Structures are given as structure tokens and as C-alpha cells.
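ok here's guanylate cyclase:
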Amino acid sequence: MSHEVFQYQRQKMFWDESWIIDFNQIKQDNFMARNATGSTVRAVSDSNASCTTALSSCTAPVGTSRKHFFTLTGRYDGRIVAIKKIQKKTFTLSKTIRREVKQIRDLDHPNLCKFIGGCIEVPNVALITEYCPKGSLNDVLISEDIPLNWGFR
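and the structure:
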């Protein structure tokens, strides 16, 4: 009996869609992007360069230092969040994606950026994560503006 209850709870969590966020609920910071030092740079430009990672893609104005560019930011549920837009023409919420989202939601560690939710409506497919003001670990390690001793690096 307890095994059946456990399976039911597991399936219930698998189909939970509370992580899905309506993109219109996010108040974007006037299309500004925050860089690794926490200052902002304009993200709207006629000539944009793309910066793509395995999970997301973002654009930065040409001339913006790539090593300092982090991501678009906005306000959601009273806090600053990072918006990682994903360029997709279509999006299907498959079992594989649900499984990955469940795994990410289950992760909890002070050294990991917390997953807030995701926007799944095309053309605004995006990952919404906790905002890290110093940028990614790579940004911190290569930034000359953030003093780190060589033992820490």
C-alpha cells in the first residue's frame, strides 16, 4: 500500500505544472541586461551578436564584452530573476522535458542557481532562474573587476 502511495506522489509531482510562468507576468528591466559586475548594458540594438549555450541563447549589442555579458533580467514575484530566452519556432512539453524540469526543481544547494520556472509559449520560450549579480562562475573567474586570490581561482 505504501509503495502505491509513493508512486502516486511521484506521478503527481511529474505532472505538476506550477513551474510554468506566463511571460507577461515578468516585468522586464526595460530590455536591459546586467553584466558580471552588476551594472547594466542596453540589450536592444540594430546590430546584435548572439551568445549561445547548450541550454539557452541570448543577444548582446556588438561591442559589449562577451566575458562580462550575463543575461536579461526582470522582476517576477517580487524578486529579480534572470531570463534566459530560448529561440524556438515550436515547443512541446514532452515527458523528457518534464523529467528534466522535475530533476532541476529537486536540486537544492547554496552554490547552485535556483530554477524559478519556465515560459513555454512560443515565441517567449525562456528559463527563469534566480539572479546571480556576479554572473556565472566563468564570469567571476575571468573577470578582472572581481578580486580573487590565485588559491581561490
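+1. Residues 31-38, 40-68 have pLDDT under 50 and may be disordered.
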